Amino acid sequence: MHIKFERRVEYSRKILISVPVITIALSILISSALLLILGKSVPLTMYSFFIAPFESFYSITEIFLKFGPLLLIAQALAIGFRAKVWNIGAEGQMIMGAIAASAVPVYFVDSTSIFLLPAMLVLGAAGGMGWAAIAAFLRTRFNANEILVTLMLTSIALQVLYYLLLGPWKDPQGFNFPQTVLFQDEALFSPLFQATRLNTSVLIPILFTIGAWVFMEKRFGGFKLQVGGLAPNAAIYAGFSAKGAVWRSLLIAGFAAGLAGMSEVAGPIAQLQRSITSGYGYSAIIVAYLGALHPIGIIFAAFFLAVIQIGGDVALVSAGVPISAVHVFQGLLLVFYLATYTFVNYRLRILRPGKSLPVGATS
Amino acid sequence: MTTIEFFLAGTMSAATVFLLAALGELVAEKSGMLNLGVEGMMAVSAAVGFVVTYETGSHIVGFTVAGISGVLVSLIYAGVAITFLANQVATGLAVGILGLGLSALIGRQHESLTVEAAGGIYIPILSDIPLLGPAFFQHNIVVYLTLAIAVAIGYCLKHTRLGLAIRSVGENPNAAQALGYSVHLIRYGAVAFGGLLAGFAGAYASTIYTPLWADGMIAGRGWIAVALVVFGTWKTGRIILGAYLFGMVSLGELIAQSLGASIPSQLLSSMPYIVTIVVLAIISTNAARLKLHAPFALGESFDGSESK
Amino acid sequence: MSDSSTTPLLSLRKVSKRYPALIANDQIDLDVMPGSIHAVLGENGAGKSTLMKLIYGVIDADGGEFIWDGERVELRNTATARQLGIGMVFQHFSLFETLSVVENISLTISGTRKELAKRVRELGATFHLEVDPEASVHSLSVGERQRVEIIRCLLQDLKLLILDEPTSVLPPQHVRSLFDALRKLQSNGVSILYISHKLEEIRELCDTATILRGGKVTGIVNPNEKTARELATLMIGRNIPQIEARAHKRDTDTPILEITHLNAKNPDPFGTHLSDINLSVYGGEIVGIAGVSGNGQQELARIISGEDLSHRLSDATIKMLDRPAAALSVTDRRNLGFSFVPEERLGRGAIPPMTLSQNTLLTAYEKGLLNNGFIRKDKLAEYASQCIEDFDVRCSGIDANANSLSGGNLQKFIVGRELMLKPKLLFVSQPTWGVDVGAAVAIRQRLLDLRDEGVAILVISEELEELFEICDRLHVIRDGTLSPPLISSKVTPDDIGEYMIGTANSSDNLSPGVKESTYAHQV
């Protein structure tokens, strides 16, 4: 007996929707097995992951705090992924956005200008775009693979960050900690609710999502990008620029990641320090896929991953589950998503061998 | 050790990590499988190799188990990308992310512990030569075995039927299938072999090169190994050269410190990444030439149905 | 052992193969007698290739049985088939370009390279299939590659040789030497299964023909006793529709497309360099480019279409509609009134997983389908519906995905989409590749009608019959060079064949100077 995949002629919406559900179910199943091996309580962990995050208002606002950057970056990455432009370095673009935005409060420590925050927005976006532009330039001018370049640029961005934090931008009164001064209120988004960290920056991902939806579903520009990803030769035949697609994809991602980085330093963290990205740049890759690279699907996926990340913090305290388990779970999500997505394009056929005379003993 | 001895010896040792991983990736790519999960495979087996070596005190046991764990992780990639026909790039990334998570989980109770480094070999006369002896002839046996593996892979791909079979499924899987080769089986084998070598590379990194465990210690070396295959334009000899070049570059930080140069350490830490980008740009400029050397069907899933 | 004169070497009983969209083979019965040259005749899409792949074990059957020399066998893989003594020469060869001839052979045949090389030479001499065993496959011509494939089959204990459309890649002269080799094999006791859609060939070579239509057997005949017309009727179920061609004169005095001294080096060492290409197409004529595939057709097509701009040609090399066009982009050329139908439908001429209405957007987006960059879905639907209606595209509607259409219908859609752009210069590469007879005739008729309306048309095709049917003038491309223009009514297929293999005396058959106004247009 052997198993074979056969291409489908008709696509089924039912399967498309059940893919993330099955993915999550399988990931939970395997994670539970892992928890048993680690000797942790499965029910308590599941409770911590999926119920506890909703038990307090503060915790819910924390979910949305994580939801924002995940949504923002994932929407942008999905546009690139649909064009088969593999930007894996949103993490680095986010760091550069945070650095560029931080330049304003670092150099204008005493300023109370209302232009602080707008200037940071502009610089944050520019920082991310500038970093992504390096990859776009190297890809279009020298044909250098953007996967490797964006990854390497992320490692370099991290070193730039360390250099600034240990050197020129270090807070002189910071007891030698690698961090800048705490930013003044004028350089920060205003909180949405008392005593929570959720702030007005959450509007940026929401606006960006609407923009991404319009672009990918309604605009000719989005269509051109999709053609480049689905059938590169058709794009060349039609006269859609491949270089343009690379530039667009990377600049959009740099823009979004840069703003996400800016939102962190001008939001919950309120200064530049070593751990500003929380791995959003990588998690967003998973969000983009789990949302089927579709602007609407990504909203749900971003929310789900935000819940898990908050849940991971809870589980660490309540069930003693190491935080790396969250990373394993995210990895499982992507692995299972890719495997189950096959059923959207293929159907499984199981072939049974018929009874027959064996031919030739060996080859 | 003098600075020069230290530099030459360090280069050889550092290069071994890159070379093992790159050779494994070379074999996988020759069969048409672009496995971007090298970083994850190395991370898992570095953690496993360290933990096992630490607990058993045996480098051999540590290497063996690390190799097996590398194979197991590679089979996750193979299952999803070969049997389930998923996009190879995305699958490699997924395995990379999963592997990094797993390595942190496996190594969490051994953070910052150390094991005793495995000793080097001693060859009478050769090892005693001033300068050259310490630089080239006092390394761990793995360093020399890696070079031997490199030569063996080069020969196998070029001159044996197995090598021809691997190259044929990487060039034209439809034709290979028509000739009676099992494309999926050969690709599974090539990917698993890649996993084995990535496993050894991880174990070498965590138990011999720097015999301590720290989360994230692979630090992009798996990705550089992937880049090395491109740098070497899928040729064994050039990949060896590339690995030694990167071994040298990755020592820059230590060398500069020992010379007392006042270059920011972050710049030196960035050097391997910067060099990777620069070399990648130079090598890739001639797109037609690169395409010529790359396995023709690299990165394409094979569903056995032919274009119909 | 069975009695070899009455027991078929191979019998198929009710063999079926289903694909999600169609039944490729429906309860096929087939008997191949020992020492017979047996034709499997059918038009594109009739299921011939699928059947041969089932026999060779490349794909698995869904039902039915295979009987080899009186015993039931299971043909699960090609190794089993080869053990039985079955060999196959594929339409698109299963050779590896980067390997040498012996290396390719050693992939399936054991033995040292030295021994193998010796046997390749011996067999080559015996069957007139000479080929250099040490040569790299990429340096071989299509005909030589075919010989390598046949020799590879001969190196095993061969009892049945399957050939899939073997002459579609050969110039007429080489067809004869192939037939000689096949007859020699037959006299050595090898049975041959010969797949083709070419009636005359089958009548000349084969002693039995099994005819397939729509995946079913519609007849088993002795082709020598049937006329080509009778065979055709069995093959497509009716008389072959004829196209209507009227005598026509070219409409313009200056060429609509003019290419002068085009040289293009190919960076791919396996590719073809184009050298000194000169070509002109006037309004109201169809110019054809014949040639064996792989002689530079694809390279030339990409340069004319503007998809390949990497050669930095001087502006005057290509003139379109009186404009220097060598540096113009695909879009600029389209805006001048140029349209192109590429040979690959899925993935180049159309986006496979997108709907037909989305596929109109690929080239027709400037025909009012956009509003400030926003896609106008209603206009898209209108445009697609009209294309489907005008060009008789059989599909489930404008929301059908391109990859759900048959080759013929998708080709009609793409041709239709391009014709709706009202081009003044149309370039079609392989207009009827893999297309069923009905659609092929419809497409050729459209091209002729368009010519009569004054459009300049350039056609690249590997099918000589097609070119003779529709072209006013012909060029032959060989190894990246183009023959002088030939008046198609004044040359024979054999003359074209001479150019294909490079033995033509170039002073013969020249068409009159392009300025000559008495130029006869006949089809």
Biggest interface, residues from each chain: A-B, 51 and 51 residues
The count of strands of chain A amounts to 2
Terminal CA distance of chain A:
20 Å
What CATH first level of chain A would be assigned? Mainly Alpha
Name the average pLDDT of chain C.
88
- Assembly type of the chains comes to heterotrimer
- In one word, what is the shape of chain A? globular
- Contiguous low-pLDDT stretches of chain C (5 residues minimum) are 507-523
CATH hierarchy: architecture of chain A: Orthogonal Bundle
Structural class computed from helices and strand pairing of chain C? alpha/beta
Measured between the Cα atoms of the first and last residue of chain C, the distance is: 57 Å
State the helix count of chain A.
13
Counting helices, strands and paired strands, the structural category of chain A is mainly alpha
Shape of chain C: globular
Quote the beta fraction of chain C: 15-25%
Q: What is the alpha-carbon Rg of chain A in Å?
A: 23 Å
Mean pLDDT over all positions of chain A: 92
In this structure, how is the largest beta sheet of chain C organized? Answer: 7 strands, mixed
CATH topology of chain A, by name, is ABC transporter involved in vitamin B12 uptake, BtuC
Chart the SSEs and their pairings.
The complex is a heterotrimer of chains A (363), B (308) and C (523).
Chain A: E1 2-7, H1 13-38, H2 42-51, H3 57-82, H4 90-107, H5 116-142, H6 146-166, H7 203-218, H8 220-230, H9 232-238, H10 242-265, H11 280-290, H12 295-318, H13 324-345, E2 346-351
Antiparallel strand pairs in A: 1-2
Chain B: H1 3-30, H2 38-56, H3 59-83, H4 88-107, H5 132-136, H6 141-159, H7 161-171, H8 173-178, H9 183-209, H10 221-231, H11 236-250, H12 252-259, H13 265-284, H14 287-293
Helix pairs in contact in B: 1-6, 1-9, 1-10, 1-11, 2-3, 2-4, 2-9, 2-10, 3-4, 3-9, 6-7, 7-9, 10-11, 10-13
Chain C: E1 10-18, E2 23-32, E3 37-41, H1 48-55, E4 63-68, E5 71-73, H2 78-84, E6 86-89, H3 101-106, H4 113-127, H5 142-154, E7 160-164, H6 172-187, E8 191-196, H7 199-205, E9 208-213, E10 216-221, H8 228-236, E11 257-264, E12 274-281, E13 286-290, H9 297-305, E14 318-320, E15 323-324, H10 330-336, E16 338-341, H11 356-364, E17 370-371, E18 374-375, H12 377-390, H13 407-419, E19 425-429, H14 437-452, E20 456-460, H15 464-470, E21 473-478, E22 481-482, E23 486-487, H16 493-501
Parallel strand pairs in C: 3-8, 3-9, 6-7, 7-8, 13-20, 13-21, 16-19, 19-20
Antiparallel strand pairs in C: 1-2, 1-4, 4-5, 9-10, 11-12, 11-14, 14-15, 17-18, 21-22, 21-23
